[in-house]
Amino acid sequence: MNAHALIGIGANLGAAHQTLVDALAELKSNAGVLSLESSRFYASDPVDAQGPVFINAVARIETTLAPIYLLDVLQAIEQQHGRVRPYRNAPRTLDLDLLWYDGIEITTPRLILPHPRMHQRAFVLEPLKELAPDLKLKQGSIEALGKTCSDQKIWLLRD
User: Which of 15, 48, 86, 120 has the most crowded Cβ, counting Cβ within 10 A?
Assistant: First the structure.
């Protein structure tokens, strides 16, 4: 059975913009990913972290992969791009977060869906307005939640 998923993508080390382009292409080429659409790219200051500016986007995919297997694919792509996790919220070469999967709720040691902090992050909510403007989370609409993050600096990158 096919499902729709939303994936947050970001990087703030190395050639971040090119890394996002490459990671999206790698995700799209996975046999379990039937289609992929990406938001435009945004820049944002780190939230609850230190380090350089992040480049961010959100991808919407149609997939045959179950959530945990999709997470495995995302983490493998991160590893291919040199992702290390020395401490929480460390700067990163690539971050791929499974944000939402067909509206289901999951809480396991490895995966929580919907992503527990997506409603607090302008760098997720702003790109989501492009791909899923009518998405409703427990906490509210994407539009309303975005207003609660207005103190977080985010700007659209030129295409």
Answer: 120
CATH class of 3-156: alpha beta
Spatial contact of 100 and 6, defined as CB atoms under 8 Å apart: yes
**pLDDT tens digits, residue range 36-76?**
999 999 999 988 777 899 999 999 999 999 999 999 999 99
Cα angle 122-123-129, degrees, rounded to a multiple of 5:
75
Token pair in block for residue 36: 């992929």
Q: How confident is the model at residue 86, as a pLDDT?
A: 66
Supply 38's token pair: 């990406």
**Element of type H or E holding 70:** helix 67-80
Domain boundaries defined on the chain: 3-156
SS3 33: strand
Q: State the Cα–Cα distance between residues 112 and 88, nearest whole angstrom.
A: 17
d(Cα 144, Cα 107) in Å, to the nearest integer?
25
Identify any residues that bridge with 70 across adjacent strands, giving them in sequence order.
none
Q: Give the catalytic positions in this structure.
A: 83, 92, 95, 97
- Residue written as token pair 């995700």: 27
Phi, psi of 123 (to 5 degrees): -70, -10
